[in-house]
Amino acid sequence: EVKPKDNPMATDKKIIKYLKNKNSLFLEEEYTHSYPYCYRCDSPLLNYATSSLFVNIIELKDKLLKNAKKINWMPEHIKEGRFGKWLEGARDWSISRQRFWGSVIPIWVCDKCKEKKVIGSIKDLEELSGEKITDLHRHYIDKIVFKCKCGGAMKRVSDILDCWFESGSMHYGQMHYPFENKEKFERNFPAEFIAEGADQTRCWFYYLHVLSTAIKNSEAFKNVVANGMVLAEDGKKMSKHLNNYPDPMDVFGKYGADAVRYYLVTSPAMKAEDLCFSEKGVDEVVKRVLLILLNVFSFYKMFETETDADTKSKNILDKWIFSKTESLKKEITDGYNKYDLNKATKPIAGFVDELSTWYLRRSRERFKSNNKNNKKQAIQTLKYVLLELSKVMAPVMPFIAEHIYKEIGGGNESIHLEDWPKCDEKLIDEKLEERMEKVREICSLALQKRAEAGIKVRQPLQQLTVNKKQLTGELLELIKDEVNVKEVIIDEKLKEGVILDTVITDKLKEEGIVRDFVREIQSKRKEMGLTPKDKIRVYYSENEEIVGKYADQIKKQVIAEEIVFSAEKPLTIDKV
Prior knowledge:
By secondary structure, the chain is of the alpha/beta class. The chain is about 45% helix and about 10% strand. The chain is built from 22 helices and 19 strands. The strands form seven sheets. Strands 6-5-8-7 form a four-stranded antiparallel beta sheet, with no helix packed on it. Strands 2-11-10 form a three-stranded parallel beta sheet. Strands 15-14-16 form a three-stranded mixed beta sheet, with helices on one face. Strand 7 (about 145) and strand 8 (about 155) form a beta hairpin. Helix 11 (about 250-255) packs across helix 12, helix 14 runs antiparallel to helix 15 and helix 14 (about 315-335) runs parallel beside helix 16. The longest helix has 28 residues, at about 340-370. The termini are far apart. The model has no long low-confidence stretch (mean pLDDT about 90).
């Protein structure tokens, strides 16, 4: 043994001793260097030259490069980069291995004239050998010998196939082609897509491509999704030995499979980049996507009526959310069509945020309104949006999508039996989306001015000046409500930003007190778990004159039958 496992240096020492005895030793010293070891049994390995069978890649190279141009890669840079450069520099492929276990190479060689014969099927081998073949493993096949035309004995080469040759033959092997399923195979070849780690550009993807080019002069697949490696949070490879990652079942139990799936599919791992798995990242998906969506869904359920989803409303917010919904469907569909999973999933989070923090917050009063038509339109709109959203979410968050779909009366037994939703281009209004973005920008700037002045949002102010001429009508009303100002003035001379009038008059101060009063009552309603159908009685002990002045308005807003002043009783509410 050259490298005994129990004493790897034993043979080296014998060689040194031999050289010393021959007076041929020039220098003896120890130095540290990397050395190959078997990863299973931890034995030192010895590399040596041996004969091998090769696939002639050089002869195929032009065809390999030509067929590769037809393949769509995700991420795209791999096509001309990692994969393309590998093909350009590819060398002949050694396909034989000197091992006992593996698929036998079906080549028989005459011991006399060295004639070679490649066996194409079990039937061919049976006819040549006159034996019944029941086992294709090496220990049986190696015993099969038949006569050569020269009279010599034809015996199988002793080597086995490189396992990548088998992997590269996967699409033939899985259908037992060409012996069976010929039409089915040819109908599905090349494959629509393949997905694996980016390291397979030089392994599985490559060998599939080589064999398909050699046999069919075709690419093996039309699309590739190459993902990066998922590493532990510390950047090291996930290892049971190091215990440097959380138990997946614990993560599923704590956050749900949907959150884990969405976290991974929206990560850089889908662009062939490595990802350091973070439980905090999964937690953020729950907080920023799932919980917000469930809150929107719960709000809808509070006001749900026996009405169909509809897109006929002309309300500016409804028209905006219709446009955003159809734009979302269009973007996600385009992402899936291009096998860009980031593009097909990331927009969901942004849409859920806009649905909750803008559409629903600005539409809240419509749902509580006594105007039946306005209220109905809001409910129909939200139902439509939730139904369509659940459909485009279904591939990446199947459980929550199914829950929402079933709860709001989806038409099928399961959302996963639905057709993929088609985008209604007529509902997309890009100008409205752009203007609404400007509205939100203005509101953000104005609210920042409030914060700088130390004035809370519930305190009404008189005036906000902006420079956007195209913002008229309903859009200006949205700004007034969001920023809580009496009027919005457009001044085209104002170059950028906004001007907020921060002077608080006595009347404005009164209105601020009323808003604070209403907010406190609404908080108490929420704490008691009351719904919009529950009426209350309110007791209060401060600002008697102001509350009394606005009593009718307050009662309507908080759904109260009576507001009672009691000097000794702090603000409380009772369910009537």
